[in-house]
Write a structure and sequence with these properties.
The complex is a heterodimer of chains A (214) and B (796).
Chain A (H helix, E strand, L loop, with lengths): L1 H12 L19 H12 L3 E12 L4 E12 L3 E8 L3 E5 L3 E5 L5 E5 L4 H15 L2 H7 E7 L5 E7 L2 H4 L2 E8 L3 E8 L4 E10 L6 H6 L2
Antiparallel strand pairs in A: 1-2, 1-11, 2-3, 3-4, 4-5, 5-6, 7-8, 8-9, 9-10, 10-11
Chain B lengths: L6 H9 L4 H19 L3 E3 L13 H15 L1 E8 L2 H15 L5 E5 L4 H13 L7 H8 L3 H13 L17 H14 L6 E3 L2 E6 L2 E10 L12 H15 L4 E5 L1 H35 L2 H26 L1 E3 H7 L2 H18 L6 H27 L4 H24 L8 H22 L3 H20 L15 H14 L6 E7 L2 H20 L3 E5 L8 H15 L3 H7 L4 H13 L7 H4 L5 H7 E5 L2 E11 L2 H8 L5 E5 H35 L1 H24 L6 H23 L4 H22 L6 H21 L10
Parallel strand pairs in B: 1-8
Antiparallel strand pairs in B: 2-6, 2-7, 3-6, 4-5, 5-6, 9-12, 9-13, 10-12, 11-12
Helix pairs in contact in B: 1-14, 2-11, 2-15, 4-9, 5-8, 10-11, 10-12, 10-13, 10-29, 11-13, 11-15, 12-15, 13-14, 13-15, 13-16, 13-29, 14-15, 14-26, 14-28, 16-29, 16-30, 17-27, 19-25, 21-22, 26-27, 26-28, 27-28, 27-30, 28-30, 29-30
Chain lengths: 214, 796
C-alpha cells in the first residue's frame, strides 16, 4: 500500500499540465522570487477552495486522450476531496492521516497514513501547493517562474527526488488571479492536465461538502 | 576382595621402554599426517554455527542450514540525520567503501529506476497466468462489475498505480492489481521504508534514515577480524561520524554479532593463555627452582593443545573459535600429570631411577585420566557441536600430555639438591595444611556444614533449568541498542518463523505451497498473522497458471468488448485482445524467466531447490499474533515443516540439558563403579559424595548469585566428578609418599581452578568455567574434611 501511495503521489502530481514550454528556461531568481512569493501568499490567503475540473490524460502509445470531469474541494489543514463525476464516478479524499477511495458502487477503501512516510510526504506536497508554501516546495522541487502576460504566470516544478523524477519529469502550474491549470509531464512524455473552472473561495464548508468529506 | 593393582600398567610401561619414544612420535605424527592429508580446514567465528540442529529430518535440517546461511549473511545499515540529503550522501559514501571489499555481495542502496518498469513489463506479458488472490476471488465470485469499476476509477482518478500504456490489451488493469500486490507483498512486506530520492528511506524521531543492505560472502568469517567486511563498516562509520557528528549509524545482522564475538574471543584467548602460562611459569619456577620442569611442562602443554586442535580440525574440519576459548582450560588439566611427575622427581630422596617415579604416579594419573576422559566422552554424545569439539580437543590434548609425561619425561635426569629442598618445603606446607583441615574441630565443621546446607537448600529450592538461547550469548550494549533501534525504525516482523514446504518435484512443491498460502489466508482472516511471502507469489504452479488463464477465458473474455467500448476503444482493439489471449495460451512463467529479473533475488531466497531427492521452498511469516493458531493451520497437512527457530533452539537446548543431566548421572554411576572396583563400596561412596556435594553447593551458590542454570552449567557439572575425585584418588594412590603427592595435587588444583576460573571472565563460557572452577575447589577442600583418617596420608 505504501507503494500505492507513492504512485498515487506521482500520478496525482502528473495531473497538473500546461503548455508554457519555456517556463523551464527561467529558474527562480532573486528578482523573480518576490513575485512568486506574492502568488504563494495570494494562494495561501484562501482557506477553502472549490472548483470544477477537467482532466485530460494523453497516452502517446495509444494515441488517445482520456477525459474526465468532476469537482474538487481543498480545505487547509483538512485535505483534498477529488470527485470524478464523468465518465466513471469515484471519490478520492486525501487528508493528513488517511487516504480514502470510493467507487461508483460505494465500495470504500481506506489507507491509514500512520507510520507511512511516503504518504506523509505526498500529503504535505499537496498542502504545500494549495497553501502556497514556497520554502517546502523549494525543498522538494527546483522552481521555475515565467510571467506569460502581465496578468498570467507559470510556475514550473522539477522534482529533486530522483525516484519521483524517474516518473514525473516536470509540473507546471498556470494561473492568473486564480490557479487555472496544472500540467504534469511524465518521464515517457505523456501528459496529464487539470483545468480548473468555477473557482470559489467559500468561508466554510456546506453541510453537503462536510458530509462528502466523510 | 584384594584391591586391584595398577602394577600391570607399570609392567607394560617397563617392558615397552624401548618403544616409548616411538609410540609418542607415532601418536602425534599420525594425527598431524591425517590432518595434512585431509585437506581443507578452517576456524570460524559464526555464532549461529554453535547452535544444535533443530529438525529431526535430515533433509530438512540440511535445507535449514541453507536458509540460515542466507539469513545469517544479511547485513543492514541505517544512516540517520535530521537532513535527508546529508543522510543520503553519507550512505552513498558508505556504499562506495563497502563495494571495494570482496567480502560483500549485493551491496544495495539505490533502487534502479528500470526495476519498476521491468516488473510492469513482466506482469504485462504474464498477466493471464499471474492473477492475484483478490482478482481470482473476484472472478470466481463473478464480481466482474467490481473489476470494471476499479479499472474505471484508476483511469479517471488522479491516483492510480501503473501505466495506462496497455489499456487496450488490459482494459481491466490486471497488471496494476498485480503490481500493487507484488510491491506490497514482496519488496516492502516487512519493512517500514519507502522509496525516496532513489533509495529506501524512512523518517523516525525527527531523523531521516537511509537503508543499506548487503550480504557477506559467507556466514562465517576468518578469525582475522581486521580484514573482515564488518571491520570496514566500523572504520568507515568512525570516519564519517568524525566529519559529521550529528550522523547516526545503526547496524543489524548476524555478521556484526559474529564479528564482535570473534574480536572478544581473540582478546579472551590472548588474555587467558597469557595469564595461565605466566602463572604456571611463576609457580613452577618458585616451587621447583629449575628450568627443566618449566620447559618440559610448557612443552607438554603446547604439544597437547596443538595435537588436540589438530585432531579437532581433522574430525570437524571447521573448528569454532569458542572451542579454542574453552580449550584454554586444557592448560590447567594437562598440567596435572606433569606436576605429579615433577613433584616426585624433585622431592623423592635417593631415587636412582625415574622408573620408580612412574611406578608411584602411574596408578593415580592413569585413573585420573580415565575419570576425566569419561566426563569429556559424555560431551561427544550431545548434539552441541561446540561441546563435541571441545570434548575431542580436550580428550586428545590430555592423552598427548599423559603420553608426554609417561614416555618422554622419564628420560630426564634427576633434580638437584636445591630443587628437592624447596619442593620438600612446599610439600610439607601443603601436607600440614591438609592435616589441619582434616583435624578441624567438630563444632567448626558442624558450623560450616550448616552454613553450606542452608545455602544449598536456598539455592536448590529456586533452581530452574533455563533453556533460553538468549542467555547463552550476551550481545554488547552498543550492538543491542543498535538492533533495538533498527527494529523500531524499520518495524520489521520476525523472520525467524517460516514454513518449509516439501515436494517430490517442482510442480508438486508449488501446488503444496499454494495450498499452504490458501490456508494462511484463512489464518490472516482469523487475525493470527499479518502477512506472508512465498515463492509461488512469483511463480505459481503450472496448474495454477493454467487455471488462471482459464478463469480469464471463462469469466472475463465475454466482458472484454463492453469494457473496451466503455473506455472508448473499438472493434479493432477487441479483435487484438482476443488474438493476444489466444497466443498467450501456452506460455509459462518458470525459473529461467526470473533469472535476470530484479525480483529474482527475492525469489531465489524463497525457492530452495533440491535437497536429496526432494524439493523445498520457504514461506516467510510476518507479524504473527497467534503462533499456536498459525502452527496448527500449517500442521494440518503433511509435507510442511513449521520452523520457529528461536523456540525450536530453546526446545532443543532444553532436551540437551535434560540429556546432559542424564549423562551426568551416568558418569557418576560409571565413576562410582570404578571406585568400588578399586576401593570397595563404603570408601567408593565416600569418595563419590565429595564432587556430588561440591556440585550441589556450586549450583546453589551460582543460582543465588543470579547466574542462569543452563546447559553450560550442566556441562560444567559433568566435569566436576571426573576432576573432583582425582584428589582422593591421588591421596589414596600416593599414601606412601604424601609430600610430593600433596604438592602435586595442590598445584594441580590451583592450575585447574585458574584455567576454568579464567573462563568466568569470557562472554560465552562464564557459567561453564565458574561451575567447574568452584566445583573443583570445593571438591579439593571437602576432601580432607570428609575423608576418613584411614584414607589420609600417614603421619611422618
Amino acid at each position: 500500500m505504501k507503494s500505492a501511495i507513492f504512485s498515487l503521489l506521482i500520478f496525482f502530481l502528473s495531473t497538473f499540465p500546461g503548455d508554457a514550454q519555456n517556463v523551464f528556461s527561467y529558474p527562480l531568481t532573486d528578482s523573480s522570487r518576490p513575485e512568486v512569493k506574492a502568488i504563494s501568499a495570494r494562494i495561501a490567503s484562501h482557506k477553502l477552495i472549490k472548483a470544477s475540473f477537467t482532466q485530460t490524460k494523453k497516452i502517446s502509445r495509444l494515441s488517445r486522450t482520456l477525459n474526465s470531469t468532476g469537482k474538487m474541494i481543498f480545505v487547509v489543514d483538512r485535505g483534498l476531496l477529488w470527485e470524478v463525476i464523468s465518465p466513471f464516478p469515484s471519490v478520492t479524499i486525501i487528508t493528513s492521516d488517511r487516504l480514502v477511495q470510493k467507487s461508483a458502487s460505494g465500495k470504500i477503501s481506506t489507507l491509514s497514513a500512520r507510520d507511512n512516510d511516503t504518504f506523509k510526504r505526498f500529503s504535505s506536497t499537496i498542502q504545500a501547493i494549495f497553501k502556497g508554501n514556497l520554502p517546502e516546495l523549494e525543498r522538494d522541487f527546483e522552481i521555475y517562474y515565467y510571467k506569460d502576460t502581465p496578468s498570467t504566470w507559470t510556475i514550473g516544478l522539477k522534482p529533486r527526488d530522483r525516484t519521483l523524477r524517474d516518473i514525473i519529469s516536470s509540473i507546471e502550474i498556470h494561473g492568473a488571479v486564480d490557479l487555472e491549470k496544472f500540467i504534469l509531464t511524465e518521464a515517457n512524455g505523456d501528459t496529464v492536465s487539470y483545468e480548473f473552472a468555477d473557482i470559489t473561495y467559500p468561508v466554510e464548508l456546506s453541510a453537503a461538502d462536510e458530509k462528502a468529506f466523510f | 576382595m584384594k584391591k586391584p593393582s595398577f602394577n600391570l600398567f607399570f609392567k607394560c610401561w617397563q617392558n615397552s621402554r624401548k618403544f616409548h619414544l616411538l609410540i609418542w612420535i607415532c601418536f602425534h605424527v599420525f594425527i598431524f599426517l591425517c590432518l595434512l592429508l585431509s585437506g581443507n580446514y578452517s576456524v570460524n567465528s559464526d555464532l549461529t554455527s554453535l547452535l544444535p540442529h533443530t529438525s529431526p529430518v535430515k533433509a530438512v535440517s540440511n535445507v535449514e542450514k541453507v536458509i540460515n546461511q542466507r539469513f545469517n549473511s544479511a547485513v543492514y545499515l541505517l544512516i540517520g540525520h535530521k537532513d535527508f540529503t546529508t543522510a543520503r550522501s553519507y550512505a552513498v559514501k558508505m556504499v562506495s567503501r563497502m563495494r571495494t571489499h570482496s567480502g560483500f555481495q549485493n551491496v544495495r542502496l539505490e533502487i534502479d529506476k528500470t526495476n519498476l518498469k521491468q516488473l510492469q513489463d513482466f506482469l504485462f506479458i504474464y498477466r493471464y497466468q499471474l492473477l492475484t488472490p483478490e482478482i481470482r476471488a473476484i472472478l470466481l465470485n463473478g464480481r466482474i462489475q467490481e473489476l470494471a469499476e476499479n479499472a474505471y476509477m484508476a483511469v479517471a482518478s488522479p491516483l492510480s498505480l501503473g501505466s495506462l500504456d496497455h489499456l487496450d490489451l488490459d482494459p481491466f488493469l490486471l497488471v496494476n492489481s498485480s503490481l500493487q500486490y507484488y510491491l506490497n507483498s514482496g519488496i516492502l512486506t516487512n519493512m517500514s521504508v519507502g522509496l525516496r530520492d532513489g533509495v529506501l528511506s524512512t523518517d523516525y524521531e525527527g531523523k531521516s534514515w537511509v537503508l543499506i543492505s548487503a550480504r557477506t560472502a559467507g556466514s562465517g568469517f576468518s578469525v582475522q577480524v581486521e580484514d573482515s567486511p564488518i571491520s570496514l563498516i566500523y572504520s568507515t562509520a568512525e570516519q564519517i561520524s568524525s566529519v559529521e557528528p550529528d550522523l547516526e549509524l545503526v547496524f543489524s545482522g548476524a555478521p556484526f554479532h559474529s564479528y564482535e564475538s570473534s574480536r572478544a574471543s581473540r582478546t579472551e584467548i590472548s588474555f587467558l593463555s597469557t595469564v595461565s602460562i605466566l602463572f604456571i611459569i611463576l609457580m613452577i619456577l618458585i616451587v621447583f627452582r629449575s628450568i627443566k620442569p618449566l620447559l618440559a611442562t610448557v612443552g607438554a602443554i603446547i604439544v597437547g593443545m596443538v595435537t588436540g586442535l589438530a585432531a579437532t580440525l581433522l574430525i570437524f574440519h571447521d573448528v569454532h573459535i569458542f572451542t579454542i576459548v574453552f580449550g584454554t582450560s586444557l592448560i590447567g588439566i594437562s598440567l596435572d600429570y606433569a606436576l605429579h611427575f615433577f613433584a616426585h622427581w624433585a622431592t623423592l630422596p635417593g631415587e636412582k631411577s625415574v622408573a620408580r617415579i612412574i611406578r608411584f604416579i602411574l596408578p593415580g594419573i592413569s585413573l585420573g585420566l580415565l575419570t576425566t576422559l569419561a566426563s569429556y566422552l559424555a560431551f561427544v554424545f550431545t548434539a552441541f557441536p561446540l561441546l563435541q569439539q571441545m570434548a575431542l580437543f580436550s580428550i586428545i590434548g590430555l592423552m598427548s600430555s599423559y603420553l608426554s609425561v609417561i614416555f618422554i619425561f622419564p628420560k630426564f635426569k634427576r633434580a638437584g639438591e636445591k630443587t628437592g629442598r624447596i619442593s620438600n618445603k612446599a610439600g610439607s606446607f601443603f601436607y600440614t595444611a591438609f592435616k589441619n583441615l582434616q583435624e578441624l574441630p567438630f563444632l567448626l565443621k558442624f558450623f560450616f556444614g550448616i552454613l553450606f546446607l542452608g545455602i544449598t537448600c536456598a539455592g536448590l529450592s529456586q533452581l530452574q533449568l533455563n533453556s533460553d538461547v538468549r542467555t547463552l550469548y550476551q550481545m554488547s550494549p552498543a550492538l543491542k541498542k543498535s538492533e533495538t533501534l533498527m527494529s523500531s525504525i524499520l518495524k520489521h516482523g520476525s523472520s525467524c518463523v517460516y514454513v518449509l514446504v516439501e515436494g517430490d518435484n517442482p510442480e508438486a512443491l508449488r501446488t503444496k505451497e499454494e495450498q499452504l498460502i490458501s490456508d494462511l489466508s484463512q489464518a490472516r482472516e482469523n487475525g493470527f498473522i499479518e502477512s506472508y511471502l512465498g515463492s509461488t507469489f512469483f511463480i505459481p504452479s503450472r496448474g495454477r497458471q493454467a487455471e488462471n488463464y482459464e478463469l480469464i477465458g471463462k469469466y472475463l473474455k465475454n466482458a472484454i468488448p463492453a469494457q473496451l467500448e466503455s473506455l472508448g476503444f473499438g472493434k479493432a482493439e477487441i479483435q487484438s485482445w482476443e488474438t493476444d489471449y489466444r497466443e498467450k495460451k501456452d506460455q509459462w512463467v518458470d525459473l529461467k524467466i526470473l533469472e535476470d529479473f530484479p525480483i529474482g533475488d527475492l525469489f531465489a531466497m524463497l525457492w530452495l531447490g533440491q535437497a536429496n531427492d526432494k524439493y523445498y521452498s520457504m514461506v516467510m511469516l510476518f507479524n504473527i499474533t497467534n503462533i499456536e493458531g498459525v502452527k496448527s493451520i500449517v500442521n494440518s497437512s503433511s509435507s510442511r515443516y513449521f520452523i520457529n527457530r528461536i523456540s525450536e533452539i530453546n526446545s532443543t537446548l532444553h532436551s540437551l540439558s535434560v540429556l546432559a543431566l542424564i549423562i551426568l548421572c551416568i558418569s557418576y554411576v560409571l565413576i562410582f563403579g570404578g571406585l568400588v572396583f578399586r576401593y570397595k563400596w563404603l570408601r567408593g561412596f565416600k569418595i563419590i559424595i565429595i564432587p556430588c556435594l561440591a556440585s550441589c553447593i556450586v549450583i546453589s551458590f551460582l543460582n543465588l548469585a543470579g547466574l542462569p542454570f543452563n546447559v553450560f552449567s550442566v556441562m560444567g557439572l559433568i566435569l566436576v566428578p571426573g576432576m573432583g575425585t582425582d584428589y582422593v584418588i591421588f591421596f589414596s594412590e600416593g599414601k606412601s609418599h604424601p609430600r610430593p603427592t600433596l604438592l602435586a595435587i595442590t598445584l594441580s588444583m590451583l592450575t585447574t581452578i585458574l584455567s576454568f576460573g579464567m573462563l568466568g571472565f569470557t562472554s560465552l563460557a562464564a557459567v561453564f568455567g565458574l561451575t567447574v572452577a568452584l566445583g573443583v575447589l570445593l571438591s579439593f577442600l571437602l576432601t580432607p574434611i570428609l575423608i576418613g583418617k584411614k584414607e589420609s596420608p600417614p603421619s611422618d
